[in-house]
Specification:
The chain has about 180 residues and is of the alpha+beta class. About 45% of the residues lie in helices and about 20% in strands.
Length: about 180
């Protein structure tokens, strides 16, 4: 497939979407973050013309990842709440844990012997864009979008999504800090 390339109008619309999302999260009360994330995933997913959007957060107790926010164009749900990423998607999670974006336009771009391929085939995923959620140099999760068809990703859009990932990571970090302070009080 040819790269999904956005024209000037679409890039302008995307910039407006990124700015709106950023503005909504800057001073958002921590009690409203989950609801705002649930509204943000479909807005981004529909703009990107993908089938699924996810936020996985890392559980520091056992290093697993928890599906905390999930949007699907078809209404499907994740197959389970926790993902043992080291077992099912070691190649992708390795990149994310190094703070790198994990992006592929086709499963052929993944290592042929990687468990990632089997897991993604089972879920029907043919292309994905995953960005690490990083706070103070530590990966706390991932923001991801997947497509049930092969497709390339516009470089400008993936770069700007890093800004969104940073904004969302900051909001999630504030929620974690608030919960920690409430438990400690």
């Amino acid at each position: 497939d040819a790269p999904v390339s956005f024209g000037l109008d679409q890039k302008t619309s995307f910039e407006a979407l990124v700015a709106d999302i950023s503005a909504r999260f800057v001073n958002l009360d921590t009690g409203q973050v989950d609801h705002a994330l649930d509204n943000t995933l479909p807005r981004l997913g529909e703009f990107l013309e993908v089938n699924r959007g996810i936020i996985l957060q890392r559980d520091d107790r056992d290093q697993s990842f928890v599906f905390t926010h999930y949007w699907s164009q078809t209404g499907d749900r994740p197959p389970y709440l926790r993902l043992d990423a080291e077992k099912f998607v070691p190649f992708g999670i390795g990149k994310l844990m190094r703070g790198e974006t994990h992006c592929f336009s086709s499963l052929d771009e993944l290592p042929p012997d990687s468990p990632d391929r089997a897991y993604l085939e089972q879920r029907g995923v043919k292309a994905a864009l995953n960005l690490p959620l990083v706070i103070d140099g530590k990966v706390i999760g991932t923001l991801g979008f997947s497509s049930l068809r092969e497709r390339a990703w516009d470089h400008t859009v993936s770069t700007r999504l890093r800004v969104v990932a940073d904004v969302l990571a900051n909001a999630l970090a504030r929620v974690r800090l608030d919960a920690h302070l409430r438990l400690g009080a």
